[in-house]
Amino acid sequence: MGKGLRKGLTSYGDAGFSLFLRKAFIKAMGYSDDALDRPIVGITNTYSDYNPCHGNAPALIEAAKRGVMLAGAMPMVFPTISIHESFAHPTSMFLRNLMAMDTEEMIRAQPMDAVIIIGGCDKTLPAQIMAAASVDLPAIVIPVGPMVVGHHKGEVLGACTDCRRLWSAHRAGEIDAEEIEVVNGRLAPSVGTCMVMGTASTMACITETMGLSLPMSATIPAPHAERFRLAEASGRRAAEMAVSGGPKPSELMTPAAFRNAQVVMQAIGGSTNGLIHLTAMANRAGVEIDLEAFDAIGREVPVLIDLKPSGDHYMEHFHHAGGVPKLLRELGDLIDTSALTVGGGTLRDVVAGAEEVPGQTVIRTPADPIKPIGAMAVLRGNLAPRGALIKHSAATPRLLTHTGRAVVFDSTADMAARIDDPDLDVTADDILVLRNAGPKGAPGMPEAGYLPIPKKLGRQGVKDLVRISDARMSGTAFGTIVLHITPESADGGPLALVRSGDMIRLDVPARSIELLVDEAELAIRAAALPPVERPDWAERGYARLFYDSVTQADEGCDFDFMMRPKV
Ligand code: FES
Ligand code: MG
């Protein structure tokens, strides 16, 4: 039996009075003693008018509450910060750690025996799971689920891989102003998260793989009735966990679970952002994510899911093909099925329950993969001493080994000002370089790594060129794009030393990225750089905390004082 309303009483010598006071206040809501005597399941509410991805949160909360009450416990809904990708200035990543802190402290502060976490838009599940790992109270995740697909002129559309592709077509003059407005209304036809294999889908698949949510929770479309039944079932399970006291996140977020998550991330053609979030989650759980190990997993795990941006389909098709349980079955020995799940069993039970769908082509077999090796590779070299990441499954194969002349942009503002300048000295063989766009640089490591194709090249029909930066990229983007160059330029990384006209060599098969300038010259340039100082934007408030404490991409961009020592 959980402690219910008695949990965390600050008695100051008279626990009876503290409980009396607590009950006196909460009874103002009309609760009976019977209701208040039960185990309590907290439920996060991240509904916001600014967050269409979480537009179904109120209905999911209702369904989860129903499940909690059917199982005899008491649901208590509480608000936390809500973050949407498009409405989070300067970036949603800047706010992820704030959401993690808010969620952690609200779970700690208020009496609850278990917690249901409802979220989904890119940074929210990582933030919420980071929080849950730190509190270590029994927790179950209900992702809000992906949007259903849109349609335009007989073509299937998805946010926001097709947002980018069609906007590029508009920039190149192939789609006129009137039609692009029509398309705008068809890219996100329902509430829910982006329905390609972007960051939200990646994190939902990882969450399910790690056993933090019930089977099929990653893929059921957001508006489907099945998702609300999943929420009800999750509510029931949370009520059981409130009584039994487990499993706790620490029992689920084990080295085996994190390894499984990395396997799945490669196999789904997951978002590059997923690696940063997974690292941050692991750091909260005291587990190490090693970049070389992640790269090694990528060399042995095939991409099996045929979803945009690496493939052709969308999350609802993945769902109807059998979802994550079927994927785990296909991955066979690459997955450690002894890992526990929040449902009370192991991944073995999940795999055993996987549905076989005759004729489906979205979840491939290792014998017939989308790509024989994983989606992402870790690069190193004099430009990225602590690593960089490329999603080569969504890149142009011939550009994966390429030497080109650097065209450097000093900041996102510099890029915006010059990228479409007809006089910009750039060719299709050049390498676009963006810097000062890392965790501290921009700040909040914006998704600026997908540098647009300069207009004059776009008009010539150029669809891709090598682009490198210390920024992140939307998981929904396509291109030969090197990201997360670490350390970032604003923190003294060598990316700060590149000059337009320098030669850079990208060699993905060899996992290297090199600036072809001799060391003596680089030392002279390094000596001439201004010292790293706290910028004006970081003088006060959360911005100051962020600037002073945020770690680099290889450490998950969490605050340095939030991590748990490694076990
Ligand atoms: Fe919310 Fe894409 S904008 S998941
Ligand atoms: Mg995104």
UniProtKB/TrEMBL annotation:
GO MF annotations, alphabetized: hydro-lyase activity; iron-sulfur cluster binding; metal ion binding
Domain Dihydroxy-acid/6-phosphogluconate dehydratase N-terminal, residue spans: 38-349
Matching Pfam families: ILV_EDD_C, ILVD_EDD_N
SUPFAM superfamilies assigned to the protein according to its UniProt record, in alphabetical order: IlvD/EDD N-terminal domain-like (SSF143975), LeuD/IlvD-like (SSF52016)
Gene3D superfamilies (UniProt xref): IlvD/EDD C-terminal domain-like
Residues of the Dihydroxy-acid/6-phosphogluconate dehydratase C-terminal domain: 362-557
UniProt entry keywords in alphabetical sequence: Iron, Iron-sulfur, Lyase, Metal-binding
Family statement: Belongs to the IlvD/Edd family.
Protein name: Dihydroxy-acid dehydratase
High-level lineage: Bacteria, Pseudomonadati, Pseudomonadota, Alphaproteobacteria, Hyphomicrobiales
Encoding gene per record: ilvD
